Amino acid sequence: MTVELGLIEGYYGKPWSWQARESVIRTLNRRRYTFYIYAPKADEFLRKRWREDHPVEMAAALKALSASCRAMGVRFGIGLSPYELYRDFNAETKDDLSRKLAAFDSWGVDDLAILFDDMRGDLPNLAQTQVDILHWVKERSKATRLITCPSYYSDDPTLDRFFGHRPANYLEDLGRLLDKSIEVFWTGEEVCSREYSAGHLKRVGEQIGRKPFLWDNYPVNDGARMSQFLHIRAFTGRHASLAPYLSAHSVNPALQPTLSCIPAISLAASYAEGDAYEYGRAFAEAARAIMPEDLATAIQRDILFFQDVSLPRLQDVTKERLRQRYSRFDHEAAREILGWLDGAYKFEEEIA
């Protein structure tokens, strides 16, 4: 048994270029990835400025990306984070949201994600209020799949520390009240889960009254700490046996689009190969599928520097050797490594 795979561009930090998005979608579509959701946190017109229209150029680019996805047979999605909408869902707010949904419809949105993550959540009747909003949206959107991210999308106590203590029975109430056709994102036992188990996913499915739609925060590397690493190793802890417990599996990629394809391709291999999957071999095969063999070999050799040491701890002499090594390659993956070495992906502290 397999599971639907897709990409959700849901990271904080420097956004990808439009060209990079289309290239990654095309690359992964050849490896069984069938949906893409645009939701970068840097797009403020999907977050704190959600009531405002996207600038004309951005709207045109999103419409063009939607058309490209459709031509590839990929579902195109948008992730809207209407900042603290549930605090006052009044007539004016509904008018603004209606206008936003109409814009999405004009772009050709297949998957609409309403995201309540990373906002204050210790509020009375939180689940009921969010359900009311989602049912209202469902009646007015032409999207054929509606997905939501709960305010508490993981068991991780970090969420309670930052966004207030989760209301009692929040997930159970959300699952009981929510239309069964609406999907629910879940990141696992942690915000960035090391692995997933059938027991955990089964329990969460019972809580929310449906199979979880996995939001996998690997290889994402946003934030002040994670941006100091390149997450390029193949997936582990995502066994094919998880498929019966999932609605779909979406990958939140790293700030480096080309390098993100290496682990993403390996995830498809994990589901396809089952017990025969080997993460070391999967890395080598994925890297060689998207770049010249000599570049893939160099990255595999240097993976400890990229994923384990961290940029601040690399000695200057090591950085210089790596710069010399990767400057010889005329390839996007090498340019992403050089940019990382030069601090081009340094993360700004404020996240909102």
Description:
- With 352 residues, the chain is an alpha/beta fold.
- The protein folds into two domains: 5-277, Alpha-Beta Barrel (TIM Barrel), CATH 3.20.20; 286-341, no CATH class.
- 44% of the residues lie in helices and 11% in strands.
- It has an eight-stranded parallel barrel with strand order 1-2-3-4-5-6-7-8.
- Helix 4 (126-140) packs parallel to helix 6 and helix 13 (316-326) runs antiparallel to helix 14.
- The radius of gyration is 20 Å and the shape is globular.
Strand order in space, largest sheet: 1-2-3-4-5-6-7-8
CATH topology of the largest domain: TIM Barrel
Catalogue the unreliable spans.
Answer: none
Succession of helices and strands: EHEHEHEHEHHEHEHEHHHHHH
The CATH class of the largest domain is Alpha Beta
Tally of individual helices: 14
Mean pLDDT: 96
Distance between the termini: 38 Å
Shape descriptor:
globular
The named CATH superfamily of the largest domain: Glycosidases
Oligomeric assembly = single chain
Structural class: alpha/beta
Taking the sheet with the most strands, its summary is:
8 strands, parallel, barrel
CATH architecture of the largest domain: Alpha-Beta Barrel
Topology, please?
Elements: E1 5-9, H1 18-29, E2 33-38, H2 56-72, E3 75-80, H3 91-107, E4 111-115, H4 126-140, E5 145-149, H5 158-163, H6 170-177, E6 183-186, H7 198-208, E7 213-216, H8 223-226, E8 248-251, H9 257-273, H10 279-290, H11 293-301, H12 303-309, H13 316-326, H14 332-341
Parallel strand pairs: 1-2, 1-8, 2-3, 3-4, 4-5, 5-6, 6-7, 7-8
Helix pairs in contact: 1-2, 1-9, 4-6, 9-10, 10-11, 13-14
